[in-house]
């Protein structure tokens, strides 16, 4: 079944006296149905009264090839296909560092140890100057920023062995394995294009099973005249894939990478790796919070089929600690009592998981196990200065439980972090998240985690289990 969603259409005055978009679907033979989408509010005659919402259904014959349709019914419909939301792509070119693998933690670890030899401390303040740059450019930025008593080449020679010996510890970004497996399973051609040297690229991906075999082309920054933001690396990838640059979809985490993709004439989805910087990616065709939020169908690629009841199953992960007082807005401002956890000691865990709304099970030492939904991030509406963890236990408690041991098993993802125009819309969305989590946690795929040993060992009184 081929389905077109909202398409430009004119429902002539004979029927409603106004215009309605046409929604239609057709099978491969061109037979199907056309639905005229309802007006949200249709102005009536007289003193500005509103008539009831109208909806009409008519048989249709459609040509998926050229978009022409023939409609039968008591009135005439003129139809033309609207411009697609996004340009169609036939292949995908992916960046590596920051996009598919999380190199931030490794970078901090290696540079922290190296700089300490010179009595300096890595604080990450120059990370934005290294993001998406060639190794030589990144090294030069660090040497200059920390006023190191060595040349750029000497720095590279000293740091590379420290870096490469820890490649085995680099974790895939959330959604990376899912994306590669999905595209590979649907026969979508993929290429890997990184500013890193080709040898380094292959060394890093060798620790991720099946990755190397999934890419038809792998290109390093040392194989082209100029690295990103020059388009060279993406143009070379398209050439080796034997495709037109305009048919390629690039997925990038850095501004230099986005610039390179656009300069090559490609469509670009940005997945910013630096928090709270999405507004800087204005040249990207789309900006998403993480790979979990990618919608391939926007680009004419096969859609993911693993969402369940508005939720995405993820590899479970665990976090816990004493309940602390939060920012004082859960119950007072939102009317939603959150059981906040301290982020102290969890900086690595937080860096591994993108901001957004998740759900799972919560264990309280004296009360039992409960369903929960939680946000991770900066809460754009309140603009938190730090990344926080704010679980909402979906249960009415008679009293506070500050200081009590709380353990969380996170099993699914609902949506990315978002800003809202009003406090009312934020509250409404939080309650919607709660309803989605409440319903989903009854599904077998999630409900089994209620008996996870991590939770059961936390609850002191077994009668609460």
UniProtKB/TrEMBL annotation:
Pfam families membership: Flavokinase, HAD_2
GO biological process: FMN biosynthetic process; riboflavin biosynthetic process
Entry GO MF terms: ATP binding; riboflavin kinase activity
Enzyme class: transferase
Superkingdom of origin: Eukaryota
E.C. code: 2.7.1.26
Pathways involved: Cofactor biosynthesis; FMN biosynthesis; FMN from riboflavin (ATP route): step 1/1
Domain Riboflavin kinase: 312-442
Record keywords, A-Z: ATP-binding, Flavoprotein, FMN, Nucleotide-binding, Transferase
Protein name: riboflavin kinase
The species this protein was found in: Castanea mollissima
């Amino acid at each position: 079944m081929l389905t077109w969603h909202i398409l430009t259409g004119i429902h002539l005055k004979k029927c409603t006296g106004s215009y309605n978009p046409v929604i239609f679907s057709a099978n491969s033979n061109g037979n199907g149905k056309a639905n005229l989408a309802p007006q949200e509010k249709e102005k009536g005659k007289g003193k500005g009264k509103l008539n009831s919402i109208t909806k009409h259904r008519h048989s249709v014959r459609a040509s998926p090839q050229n978009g022409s349709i023939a409609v039968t019914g008591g009135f005439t419909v003129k139809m033309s296909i609207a411009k697609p939301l996004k340009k169609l792509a036939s292949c995908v070119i992916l960046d590596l560092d920051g996009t598919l693998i999380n190199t931030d933690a490794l970078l901090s670890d290696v540079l922290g140890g190296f700089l300490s030899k010179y009595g300096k401390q890595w604080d990450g303040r120059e990370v934005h100057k290294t993001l998406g740059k060639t190794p030589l450019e990144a090294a030069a930025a660090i040497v200059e920023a920390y006023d190191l008593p060595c040349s750029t080449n000497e720095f590279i020679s000293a740091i590379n062995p420290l870096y490469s010996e820890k490649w085995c510890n680099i974790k895939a970004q959330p959604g990376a394995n899912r994306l590669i497996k999905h595209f590979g399973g649907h026969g979508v051609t993929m290429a890997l294009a990184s500013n890193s040297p080709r040898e380094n690229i292959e060394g890093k991906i060798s620790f991720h099973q099946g990755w190397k075999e999934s890419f038809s082309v792998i290109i390093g920054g040392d194989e082209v005249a100029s690295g990103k933001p020059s388009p060279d690396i993406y143009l070379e990838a398209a050439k080796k894939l034997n495709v037109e640059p305009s048919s390629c979809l690039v997925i990038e985490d850095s501004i230099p990478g986005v610039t390179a993709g656009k300069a090559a004439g490609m469509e670009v989805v940005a997945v910013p790796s630096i928090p709270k910087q999405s507004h800087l990616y204005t040249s990207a065709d789309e900006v998403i919070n993480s790979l979990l939020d990618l919608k391939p169908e926007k680009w004419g690629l096969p859609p993911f089929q693993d969402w369940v009841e508005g939720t995405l199953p993820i590899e479970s992960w665990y976090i816990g600690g004493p309940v602390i007082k939060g920012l004082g807005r859960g119950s007072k401002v939102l009317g939603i009592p959150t059981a906040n956890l301290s982020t102290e000691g969890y900086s690595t865990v937080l860096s591994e998981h993108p901001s957004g709304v998740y759900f799972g099970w919560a264990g309280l030492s004296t009360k039992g196990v409960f369903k929960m939904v939680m946000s991770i991030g900066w809460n754009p509406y309140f603009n938190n200065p730090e990344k926080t963890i704010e679980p909402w236990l979906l249960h009415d408690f008679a009293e506070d439980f500050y200081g009590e041991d709380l353990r969380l098993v996170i099993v699914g993802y609902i949506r990315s972090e978002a800003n809202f125009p009003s406090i009312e819309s934020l509250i409404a969305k939080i309650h919607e998240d709660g309803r989605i989590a409440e319903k989903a946690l009854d599904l077998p795929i999630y409900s089994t985690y209620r008996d996870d040993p991590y939770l059961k060992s936390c609850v002191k009184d077994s009668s609460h289990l």
